[in-house]
Amino acid sequence: MDNNEGEKLSNYSAETVDDDEPLDLDIDVLLQYASCRLNRTCICARRLTRGLYNEIYLLRFETGPDCIARLSRELTHPASKFASEIATMKYVAQNTNIKVPAVYDWNGTAQNPIKTPYIFMERLPGQHLYRVWHELTVEQKKCVLSQIVEILFELWTKCRFEEIGCLYMDEQSSSDSLSATSTFRIGPVVNPLFYFGGRDCILNFNFSGPFKSLQEFYGALIQKEKEFFEVHGAQELEGKKMPLTRVKILVKQLDLLQSKLSNIFDESVDQKPFTLVHGDFDAQNMLVERSSTNDIKIIGIIDWEFSRTGTLWELCKYPIWIQERDELSTSDTNLQENHEKQNLRDFFYNEMIIKLGNRAGQMLKMKEQDKRIDELEDMFTFMVHKFDTLEGLLEHFFYRYGSEAKANIKLADPIMRLFWGPSLTKVQIPSERTINSYLLSADKSSDTEVKVPKHYIASVYCKLKSIDYNFSWQEASVIAFHMWNNRSSPKKSSANKTISLSEIETEQLEYSQTPL
Length: 516
Hints:
Layout: H1 5-9, H2 27-38, E1 42-50, E2 54-61, E3 67-72, H3 79-95, E4 103-107, E5 118-122, E6 127-128, H4 129-132, H5 138-158, E7 160-161, E8 166-169, H6 171-175, E9 184-187, H7 214-239, H8 245-259, E10 274-277, E11 286-290, E12 296-301, E13 308-310, H9 312-315, H10 332-356, H11 358-369, H12 372-380, H13 387-401, H14 414-419, H15 432-440, H16 448-451, H17 454-466, H18 473-486, H19 501-504
Antiparallel strand pairs: 1-2, 2-3, 3-5, 4-5, 6-11, 7-10, 8-9, 10-13, 11-12
GO molecular function, one term: kinase activity
Domain Aminoglycoside phosphotransferase: 46-313
Keywords: Kinase, Transferase
């Protein structure tokens, strides 16, 4: 194995998790079992990496190609999770030009000699895209983005469906899952959202699809949480000695959100045909190689677990590593990086229109302006939340979008998205003439950042935006500096301290909670 091989082969799992115990595995049994199942002698097994749900081993044989063994670390996953993943990879290989690992053998249960679910699959060459991305020129990055758009085009044009759910092979194909061709069906969504954190114990809820629309899918996710907390919310609060009336309030909020989903999922977002959406379409799951002419080519897409069918809205998104981040960036390095990301987003946007049509471009623009579905994803699709976390996310959502869950165009501003919430301070903006005098003042203050609490600057910025001023963060900082120093009786409290940006998101400030 060459020096770079370990790096190249770490592409078969998510980010390494070092805190958990490694899988209790008998390597000799793994070698013997792989030899038996693949009908050739396995002589070596080397662990490459460990992710949240899996450990990845490289298997070597006396003859024939190497093999990747992906062994499950989590025994609570149902067998259908593995059946769906195998079906998805096979469907993609059978119907598109996207390269995915060939599956040699698999078992979705622990009823086998190695005592854990496993997949023996093809070892693809290449490296994670994320390992080389920052070494690439802008033109090379654009070349990679063009290839990503081509992959999305393959999925959109060749993987079309009438329901939202996970792919499965029919019974006859499942019995011979490694045959050249198979037939497929859409079945229930298999995802930890439906069975982690006690969600598999909800007595009155057993519907995980297929779904006729994205609205129906989110309705089911909300219903699941509502029924869970009606029973278990009281238990959680009793343990924390908190009032049980909060359970009724949370359930009412979930009811309200469920009833307003039609205001979020209109026809522009939620329409057929549905397409195949990768469960984690990130740079860690894209394998690339560099050619002799220094071109970068995507040679494979891996890790299709938890993939499902979904809408064009879900397919059309900027790659996460070029997305605009909701943060304040004032350093020259950050500003330069943001400028490059904007350039790459503009390129990606144009490529999407060329390949997938104007509707794809409209989706990308809508996502920049309307973050309601993103916030629903945070609440219901990324993980299952504890009571108080979900309670806070719901409060934040309704503060931003009101009881009708209508779009708030002002939140298209990334700084507004970062700070807009119930903890903003109530501020009184001075006259336009006074504002102009502040901005023209010689005392624009290089020490503004020191003297004025960040949350106060944020409150001034958001208030200015809400009354249709279009000042930058730097200009708002100057205005806030003068407003802060001109207050007749400044309130003395611990909230007057200057805080870091990371603290702003979590610290409960002691100012008025009155909305702007």
